Amino acid sequence: MTIHGKVVAITGASSGIGAATARHLAAVGAAVVLGARRTDRLDRLVAEIEAAGGQAAATRVDVTRPGDLHSLVAMAVERFGRLDVLVGNAGIARTSPVADLDVKGWSAMVDVNVKGILHGIAAALPVFRRQGSGHLVTVVSTSGLKIVPTQAVYAGTKNAVRTLLEGMRQESTDGLLRTTSISPGYVRTELVDNAVDDPAVREQARQTMADLGIDPMAVARAIAFVIDQPDDVEIGDLTIRPTRQG
Ligand code: NDP
């Protein structure tokens, strides 16, 4: 089965890359099940997708709460009969030099970016196993490929997920599970809005995103591409960044 008719759950679907992915996948024939904390945005997105003739459902998901991921997966199975793909996209960034000891920010990034993915895996894997197939797509980052000052911890969380997926790939040579890490570079989203407290630094980051960042729809198309492969083809890693990014 290619993308048409697949059931895809997406975390962090209320904005940016997740929302674009929901719109695009629904437009090309997938049924999408959306999770995030801002349910007002999710409800509007579901209405928009349905008005365009697509299939969508949404539930409140805080990825730091394991039960919320189980509810997301259960919703996919109840509404659409199965879950073919989980897109682990929800993420936060807090940027500062390690020496600033933003312990709260580190902890939040580990909780959302790493443990949030693990909770999704714990919810989805039993369903994938029961069905005999499944695909785990995670949104990591080029930050993990080229480590720049102020992003060490963020990059570490993204590389933890990359490592996790490679380990799962090694454990799943029976063909049951496909794993894909998508590494975007600068993408024009709300991610930078909460990345730093200093208003001047934040404004600078926003400006960089506005000048250089690609449209989230570009990442959505990349995610569609990896999902759209035949069952015996796994795209393991995909990097997508602005042409002008260093
Ligand atoms: P946004 O800030 O626009 O989107 C982040 C999404 O994550 C939101 O939908 C937010 O929803 C959700 N989220 C945050 N915390 C939680 C939580 N505890 N539980 C559930 N959902 C949560 O940024 P992006 O679209 O850019 O980010 C998407 C992913 O892409 C992230 O993993 C990010 O690290 C990654 N990325 C982004 C890049 C960029 O340049 N923008 C570059 C490389 C990677 P809500 O607040 O409603 O819960």
List the helices and strands and how they pair.
Elements: E1 7-11, H1 16-27, E2 31-36, H2 39-51, E3 55-60, H3 66-80, E4 85-88, H4 103-131, E5 134-139, H5 152-171, E6 177-184, H6 199-212, H7 216-227, E7 237-240
Helix pairs in contact: 1-7, 3-4, 4-5
Organism: Kutzneria buriramensis
Family: Belongs to the short-chain dehydrogenases/reductases (SDR) family.
Protein name: NADP-dependent 3-hydroxy acid dehydrogenase YdfG
Give a quick summary of the entry:
This protein has 246 residues and is an alpha/beta fold.
Characterization of the model:
- By secondary structure, the chain is an alpha/beta fold.
- The protein has one domain (7-240): 3-Layer(aba) Sandwich (Rossmann fold), CATH 3.40.50.720.
- The protein is 47% helix and 16% strand.
- The chain has a seven-stranded parallel sheet, sandwiched between helices.
- Helix 2 links the parallel strand 2 (31-36) and strand 3 (55-60).
- The longest helix is centred in the middle third of the chain and has 29 residues, at 103-131.
- The model has no long low-confidence stretch (mean pLDDT 97).
- It binds NADPH dihydro-nicotinamide-adenine-dinucleotide phosphate.
- The site of NADPH dihydro-nicotinamide-adenine-dinucleotide phosphate (NDP) has 30 residues, from helix 1.
- This is NADP-dependent 3-hydroxy acid dehydrogenase YdfG.
